[in-house]
Structures are given as C-alpha cells and as structure tokens.
Amino acid sequence: MKYILAILCLFTLAPAFATDHLASTPEEAVALLNKAAAGDRILLKDGVYNNAVIQFNNARGTKEKPIWFMAQTPGKVSFEGNSTLAFAGNYMVVAGFTWKNGGKALKERSVISFRAGKEDAMYSTVQDCVIDDYNNDSLNVDNKWVSLFGQHNVLTRCLLKSKRNLGATVTVWLQQGIPARHLISYNHFLNRFNGPDADNGLESIRIGDSKTSFTEANCIVAFNRFEACDGEIEIISNKSCHNSYLHNTFVESDGGLTLRHGNDCLCDGNFFDGTGKNLSYGIRFIGEGHTAINNYFYNLQGAPRQTFRAPVTLVNGLENTPINGYFQVRRAVISDNVFVNCDMPAIRMGAFSKRPGMTIGPDTVTISNNIIWDNAGKRGRYMNPSPLPPISKCRITKYLADHWTQMRKDL
Q1: What SS3 class is residue 393?
Q2: What does the pLDDT read at residue 59?
C-alpha cells in the first residue's frame, strides 16, 4: 500500500506536460493561443482559410518551452483573401503557413506582424512560411509583408515571392536607442517587382529609417538569397548602426546592398552575380565605419549606366546634411574582395547625384588586398566624377594611387 501511495504522490507533484491542440478554425486557434501554457503546440487543421484575422498575445513561453502555432501539415494550411497574422509575447514560434490568392484590400496592414495591438513579440520566430503574390489592388498602396518589432526575433527559411506594390517586403521597426538584435536568415526573396514604377520604397529588406538611423540595431542578415529583385536600387536598405550582412546571395537583380543611413556595419562573404543585368551592382557606402570584406562581385553591369551602381560605390557627403540626407563616408574598409568580369570602375570613389551640395568626399578609406579580373580586359568610363579628397587621406595601394592620379588627369 505504501508503494501505491508513493507513486500517487509522484504523479501529483510532477509538472503538467505540454499539450498539442488541433484547432478547426482560426478563431478557435486564437482562443487556444491566448491561454496556452509553455510548450503547448496549437495546430491549425489543414485547409484554406479566407479573410482570417489572427491576433494573439501570450507571454508564458520560455526558451526551453516555446509556444507553437503551426500548420497541421506544413504547406497545407493556406490563408487567402485579406488574411493577416499579428502576435506578441515571449518565445512564440509560427511555422508552416502559406499566404496566397489575396491581399487586394490589405491597405497598409502587414501580412505578418511581430506586434499585436501595442505589445511586441520578444524572442519569437516565424519559420517555414510562404507569402506568394499577396498584393494590394492598388500598387501605389504601401504595406509590408513582414514587420519585425520588439527584440531578439527571428525570420528564417521563408519564401517571399512576387511582391509588386509599394512597401518593403521585410521591415525592421526600431525604437530609438533600443537594439533590436533580430536574425533574418535562410530566406528566399524571389521576384520583387516595381508595379507602381516608383523610385523608392520597394526594398526587399529595410532595417530602420532615417529617424532611428543612429540606433545600434545589431541585426544579422545571413544566408539569404535575393533573386530577380528589381523593385528599386536598394535591395537591402540599411538605416541603422552595427548590423551585419553575412554570406547572402544576390543574383539576377537590378539592385544591390545600400548602407543608406547609420554607421559601423559589416558586409562579409556576400556573393553578387549580376548575370549581365544592366543595373546590377554590389555595395554602396554612406556614413562612417562600414566594412566590406571577403565579398565576390561577378558580372555586375551597372557602373557605366548610373553613378551609384558600381560594384562598390563610396558616395560623397552632403554639406549640412539633414538626417535623411547623405553623411560623409569615413573610416571605410574595402579589403580582400574579388571582382570578376564587372564593368569598370570596380570601386567608385566620391559618387554623387545632381543634388546640390554633395561635395564632401570620402575620408580615411582603406582599400587593400582586392583582386580585380576581367576576361575581356574591359575599360570603363567614369560618370559624374566628384571633387576627390587628397590621396594622402586614403591608405591605398600604389597601383590604385597611380590609377586615381590618372583619373584626376582624365577629368
């Protein structure tokens, strides 16, 4: 008898195990998610759900036991019409859903938002999801497919395909002075179109904006593929400080990676293959302390056509620049990169637009150990040459110094 009592005591003291719940409707899923315990998994039954507005908030998840919201079978739960997902809380995981055949009346709402009401998600993940051609009826309406708020969140292994209307595909929203520390990794950005034929606001990723550009976001963008992303000149628009862009692939895209605002960002190990597209380029520098190392630039053709589209472009600063203008390039490092079969110049110093006052040339630039190779021995012409800083302000190799001196004579 005493053994039976001991066993009963053990069961009484043991913690409750996490539970799987199968929801038949989005409304049932929301109710379960709002009251879920740490480790619970809420599975939405396979099917197609039209105009589903899913919003939940749960702070009971933990690192060891996150709360899951997932498809019963990955890839077999589809949201259509004007369906959206917004969530907040701690240690949430959203996985396996598809958004397609819709978006016409979304207006400015995000498809997926790491915020519900006024509360943000923290330490949460969206993974293995698809958003496919989910566009506003009016292509001039600006909305984002994924809006990242909060801190320490992850977007990974997702397919983001055929965005046509205004608004960045993925946007990181920052609070002044608060590091976001998000991870955006292993996603496929495919077919970013410019439906409204606009010059701005069609990025694949934007981190921050001009108002928060001096915030140390500390985000990592790694191992993503950007393919046929022709929305605008900036496939990635960096607008904050201390972000890292690591081992991403840019292929067959009329655009590149622009360090538009903010300082001290790292571009390491990225691969750019222009496949001969006319406006393809690599990395554009604006601001202080940026580094581009170990990148591979291949068959990029933008340099002779537009000033800002060389494989690597260092932009002139704007006199008395406003916060949304052009800050001087300073303390830049361009090292150990490989340039193959790109239109020249491979590195354009002091590029500027027609905007008056863009006369402050790059200062304290290190260019070293780069390899430039062209099978056909191409020569490029320099477009919109700027007043260049004294050579003494840039630590460059003798070859590049001689090249720069000749360029001055050519001007």
Answers
A1: helix
A2: 97
